[in-house]
Structure formats: C-alpha cells, structure tokens
Specification:
5-stranded antiparallel beta sheet; Alpha-Beta Plaits; 3 domains; alpha+beta; Uridine Diphospho-n-acetylenolpyruvylglucosamine Reductase, domain 2; Uridine Diphospho-n-acetylenolpyruvylglucosamine Reductase, domain 3; binds flavin-adenine dinucleotide
Length: 326
C-alpha cells in the first residue's frame, strides 16, 4: 500500500495537520483498551471535521480498497476499535458539536464524536433541567458508540439500553453515501424512529462496520428537583439481589438501580492483591454494592418514595444509606 499517495489525497480533504502515517501516530491507533491478539495495524490516522469529510475519506478508502475503522476514544471492552486489517482509523473527536437541544420533545442532536463529558457539560450549562444518561465508563468515551452497542446508562430503568435512547441517525455508508434514519429523514425534527420502517438495526451492534454515524439524536430526561441516591453496602448478594428486583418493579420514581458483585466492588475499592478476596463463594465478607436513585417533583412525593424504598430494603435485609445527589 502506497501510504504517501493516499495521505496526500487525504490531506486535501482534512488539511495536513489532521492526517498522519507517522509510526508514533500509527502506534497510538493500532490497538484499543483491551490488547488484541494478534495486534492490530493502523496505516493512517485521520481526524475529520464534518460528515462531508468523512464521506470523502470513505470514497478514498474505496478507491484504494482499504478498511476504515471509526474511533472515538478506543475505550470499549471488546477490542472492537482495533484495526485488524490495517487501513485508515477515523478519529471522530473533532465531530464534537451539540447541534440542537429540543426541550419540548426532549432530545439532543449530537455529532458522532461527542463524549459524555461534552454532553453533560453542555446540558448543565444550558439546560440544567434536562439530563442525558450517565455511564460508568470514563467521561471521555463517546455517546454514539455507547448507544450503538446497547450501552447501559443510569436511566436504563426508564429508557432501556442505549439503543432505545436513539431517536435518529445520520450515517456515512460504506459507499460514501450519506443517509438518515428516523423522523429526521422526512422533516427537521428528530423526535423518533417512526414513521417509516425502522432501519436503525442496520447500524446497532455492528460496531461501525456498516456505517459511520456522523449525527445522532439521543433522548433526554427531566432532572426533577428532589433526588436521593441510596447506597447499599456491607451485605451479601443473597440479600441484595432480591431487594433490588423488588425495588425495580415498585415504581417509586427510581431512575437508576445498580449493583455490582465482589470483583467489581473490589476494583472500586482499589484493593491491592494482598487484600483481595479470591473466592467469592466462601468469602464471609460482603460481596454486594448497590445504589438506588429516586427523583420526584415535590418534597412530599420524594419523602414518600424514600420511605417506601427503605421499607422494601428493611423487609429484604438490605442496609441502605441515603446520600445527597446533584
Ligand atoms: C471502567 C469502564 C467502565 C465502563 N462502564 C460502562 C457502562 O457503565 N456502560 C456502558 O455502556 N459501557 C461501559 N464501558 C464500556 C465502554 O466505555 C463504552 O462502551 C463506551 O461507549 C466506549 O466508547 P469509546 O468512545 O471508547 O468507543 P470506541 O472504542 O472508540 O468505539 C467502540 C466501537 O464503536 C465504533 N464506533 C465508534 N464511533 C462510531 C460512530 N460514530 N459510528 C459508528 N461506529 C462507531 C468503533 O469502531 C468501535 O467498534 C465501560 C468501560 C470502562 C473502561
């Protein structure tokens, strides 16, 4: 593969500064968070600034018959952003604009490289009564890849997995064509995936292999004035899990319910090897950590919800401790 010829064509699309085939840049993009076996290979890394530039990049890749891998932060769990067969890694982090927030229909139209930190920061500043989901993944990871891979957010009790948060998409296909999925394909409104047959599935869980999403509308949710997170610590799974199951079916304004097992709990505590319990079955120590977040519109409603949460936990022998939530 003649890198320099392809690089000079790509430079015409994004500018010299945003494309590189230097070994140190190739190294940065040749693997992602989980080291792939065998290792990947990045020939060229490029950072476009618009959907049109992404289209041009794909057309150049078609011309030279080389693969293209989209990338936001490369911090996924499956080594799915690792370029296995060389080619171009398209770093989408300049596509970090929040294009629109529709407060009536409660969605945000974002570009393909927007991170959770970008979205949260924007909403806190401009729309403090609205919020997006929160994941446990680092703030610099992408919103679009998380939604595409059925990611899990704190609002999943209300909204389902990340895929259910998607109202519509703009996608660059492998042909270089730009298409839209959802109501945005028929109007300026990205209110949902209706009314045409829902083609979102062509891109969900395909991890960028069927197209590069350059814009996505994601659902937003109201941030109600009264909120409490109850922490459940110091118990065993056999008490924690039944309590969480009962809570999850009880309504009570719960917008997040979350628990982790011994392994995750130990990693959260940052224990060293010496203090780590090796056998979770035999371990007498607690192996359950959970949280339950509830929100309400009035103080009275909130108090009643918290009392009901406490009653269910007491019945199930789950100790909880309320903490303030912002
Ligand atoms: C400590 C930790 C905690 C985590 N907790 C959670 C959690 O609570 N919930 C959760 O859901 N995940 C979690 N994750 C997993 C991971 O961080 C998320 O899946 C995150 O969304 C990955 O984002 P990324 O920007 O790193 O994606 P990348 O690794 O850059 O991309 C992931 C995949 O999507 C493709 N892709 C990227 N952008 C696009 C695009 N615009 N169009 C099409 N395809 C694209 C890539 O090619 C790749 O296949 C966690 C990870 C860590 C390390």
């Amino acid at each position: 593969m003649n890198n320099s010829k392809i690089v000079s064509e790509l430079e015409k699309v994004v500018g010299e500064k945003y494309v590189s085939a230097q070994p140190e840049i190739q190294f940065l993009y040749h693997y992602d968070f989980i080291t792939a076996e065998p290792e990947g290979k990045c020939d060229i890394a490029i950072i476009p600034n618009s959907a049109e530039e992404v289209q041009e990049i794909v057309k150049i890749a078609i011309k030279y018959k080389i693969p293209v891998v989209p990338w936001v932060s490369g911090i996924n769990f499956g080594s799915i952003a690792t370029p296995r067969k060389g080619g171009i890694v398209v770093d989408l982090r300049r596509l970090n604009r929040i294009i629109e927030v529709n407060i009536d229909d409660m969605y945000a139209v974002i570009e393909g490289g927007v991170t959770w930190a970008d979205l949260k920061g924007y909403l806190e500043k401009k729309h403090p009564n609205l919020r997006a989901g929160i994941t446990w993944s680092p703030p610099g990871t992408g919103v679009v890849p998380a939604c595409l891979c059925y990611g899990m957010f704190d609002l999943r009790m209300l909204g389902g997995s990340g895929a259910e948060f998607i109202n519509g998409m703009e996608v660059v296909l492998g042909s270089g064509d730009l298409i839209k999925v959802g109501s945005c394909s028929l109007s300026n409104y990205w209110y949902g995936r209706q009314p045409l047959p829902d083609l979102a599935g062509l891109f969900l869980s395909w991890e960028g292999t069927t197209g590069i999403v350059t814009k996505m509308a994601v659902k937003l949710w109201p941030k109600l004035p009264y909120r409490t997170t109850h922490l459940a610590i110091g118990v065993k799974m056999k008490f924690g899990v039944p309590a969480m199951l009962k809570l999850s079916k009880a309504g009570l304004g719960i917008c997040d319910i979350y628990f982790v097992n011994l392994g995750w709990f130990q990693s959260i505590q940052e224990l060293n090897e010496k203090d780590v319990v090796k056998d979770p079955i035999k371990a007498k120590t607690p192996d359950f950590f959970g949280l339950i977040t509830t929100q309400a519109y009035t103080e009275k409603q909130h108090k009643a919800q918290c009392e009901a949460i406490e009653a269910i936990c007491t019945e199930k022998n789950l100790k909880i401790r309320p903490t303030e939530e912002t």
